[in-house]
Fold this sequence. Notes:
- It is a single chain.
- The protein is an all-alpha fold.
- It folds into 2 domains: about 1-60; about 60-265, ABC transporter involved in vitamin B12 uptake, BtuC (Orthogonal Bundle).
- Helix content is about 70%, strand content about 0%.
- The protein is built from 11 helices and 2 strands.
- A two-stranded antiparallel ribbon has the order 1-2.
- The longest helix is centred in the first third of the chain and has 36 residues, at about 60-95.
- It is flat.
Amino acid sequence: METGRKTLKYIFILIILLILMVIVASSIGSAKIGLKDTSLILASFIPGINHFIDTARLDLREIVIISQIRIPRIFLSIFVGIALASAGVIFQGLFRNPMADPFVIGVSAGAALGATIGLVFVKDIGLLNISTTTVFALFGALATTFLVYGISRIKGKVSVITLLLSGIALSAMLSAMTYLIMIFKTHDMAKIVFWIMGGFTSASWSNFIILAPVVTTLVIISGFFMRDLNIISLGDERAAQLGVQVDRVKKILLVLASLIAAAAYQ
């Protein structure tokens, strides 16, 4: 009970800090907006509180800057952070390594190669308002995950060490393929590098509307396997003795972690 209360207290403190950071971040930029005005503008969009805000006194230009430029970037960055952190937690539990992340089994390299192919060789037709680059990045991440899992599967079992080494090797190969495309397609190099480096300059509410539900759904689904993941972190044999279907849970969590990480690469 005491541990639960401490956890809730920390969550509450973190939420308060996040709200403060959103306010501060919304006021920072090429157009300087005071913290007071920023707070009033943000409050004017909150149901129940907006009735107490005199919007007539607010600068329309500042409202547009905050609501259409800065807030979408901030919210999108929050959910990208949630996605990468969640994927990292899953990979760390599976590999029993606190340094594990989506780069370990080549998910990031696969997404980068997929996005590069989409940028260079495929016309952007979009799918359900999702860019072709995002779709190819998703396919690249998933294909890499299944390929690494297939390579690591020996006699029906998957060793964590083999999975880790396979991921590192495949990541290096996929990165080399990406660089090879950049060499032969020098006129597209700038946009490839820009995509790989990432950024939120083109963030919009449409991006957020696509990303937020996907990340939220995948994180919730992953949450149902956290008990099994905690047991697996004790060792495969111990987990099997405790009734966990180790290979099945690993496969599901690898796919979920790959999807969560890939969702951030849009």
